[in-house]
Amino acid sequence: MGHPQRTVLSAVRLLELFDADHTEWHLSALARRLGRPTSTLHEQLETLAAAGLLTRAGRGRYRLGWRLLKLSSALYLSLPWYAPAHAAMERVARRTHLLAFLCVLEGERLLCVARSVQGRDGPPVAGELDFELPAHATASGKLLLALAGRPLPDPAPAYTEQTLTQPGAWEAEAAAIRQAGHAATADEWAAGTGGLAVPLRGAGGEVLAALGVSLPTPRLRERETLLRTLHGAAAEVSWELGYRPEPARPGRAAPGRQTP
User: Fold this and answer.
1) How far apart are CA 40 and CA 144, in angstroms?
2) How many other C-beta atoms are found inside a 10 Å radius of the C-beta of residue 248?
3) Greatest CA separation found in the chain?
4) Distance of CA 177 to the CA centre of its chain
5) pLDDT averaged per 10 residues, the chain (length 260)
6) What is the DSSP string of 202-234?
7) CA dist 136 → 88, 159, 208, 256 (Å)
8) Alpha-carbon distance 148 to 164, whole Å?
9) Smallest Cα–Cα separation from 151: which of 139, 162, 164, 133?
10) Which of 242, 238, 260 is nearest to 251 (CA)?
């Protein structure tokens, strides 16, 4: 790996350490976390601060910089589906009183690009603040992997006894997901946490993102009601984006519905 590439990856890893739980870092704490000398790390932090990607919050302390807002705004403007999808996600959160989310598959990574807890009623669930999620142990990840015809990640770590890690079992489940038009998980990432997810499609039928909810596993008894809400919200967004699904053929299950 060339020196410029190492430098960029090092900067990305550093910026990713700033999250909802660590909005501010001290130089010495970052050095311990990364296992790097404070002198070289300080130089990199000052470079990022000069570029506006970080800002100094005091002696030896740093926070994310305002320039990131400009970059994020440019990103959202480049995604015509994001605004209607985000509005649909918030409607789902209000109607279900659950954590609702939007996820995308980027290479091998499942990224949670938006979440909403509007009106949520209940305890926190696993991964509530995580940006990167395990694709094979979450409803959104399974949905996007299945619709893309992708195999399980390698490796596919087992988070609980319910985590699916066998390629053969995944092939059968992926086929079922494609036929049903949605994905569900129960206690696969963390005991007590489940999920449901449906696809958002663009004008040509391409899968843009997963819209879903994360919930305490006992609330999966409301699965059919929740899926109707999710499918309805996703259909509104996809229709607004120009997607016109083919009418269901005789003997063929309509998307989002399972055959008896």
Assistant:
1) 40
2) 11
3) 70
4) 18
5) 71 83 89 91 92 91 88 81 94 94 91 83 72 93 97 92 93 96 96 96 96 95 96 96 79 42
6) -TTS-EEEEEEEEEEGGGGGGHHHHHHHHHHHH
7) 25, 10, 18, 20
8) 18
9) 164
10) 260
CA 90 – CA 86 distance, rounded (Å): 6
Place of tokens 């990131």: 68
Say what the pLDDT of residue 250 is.
59
* Residue 119 DSSP class: T
Q: CA 138, 152, 172, 179 torsion: positive or negative?
A: positive
Scanning the structure block, which residue is given the tokens 């984006």? 241
Angle at 105 between CA 144 and CA 120, to 5 degrees: 80
Q: Helix (H, G, I), strand (E, B), or coil: what is residue 111?
A: strand
Which pLDDT does position 254 carry in this prediction? 47
Exposure string of 79-116, with b = 16+ CB inside 10 Å and e = fewer, is eebbebbbebbbbbbebbbbbbbbbbbeeeebbbbbbb
User: Three-state DSSP class for 48?
Assistant: helix
What's the gap between Cα 148 and its chain centre?
A: 16
- For residue 159, what are the contacts with CB-CB under 8 A and spacing of at least 6? 134, 137, 188, 189, 190
pLDDT of residue 23: 87
Q: Copy the structure tokens of residue 217.
A: 């596993």
Strand partners, 132: 111
Q: Tokens for 191?
A: 């005991």
pLDDT at 197: 98
CB atoms within 10 A of CB 175: 11
Q: Say which residue the tokens 């990574």 belong to.
A: 109
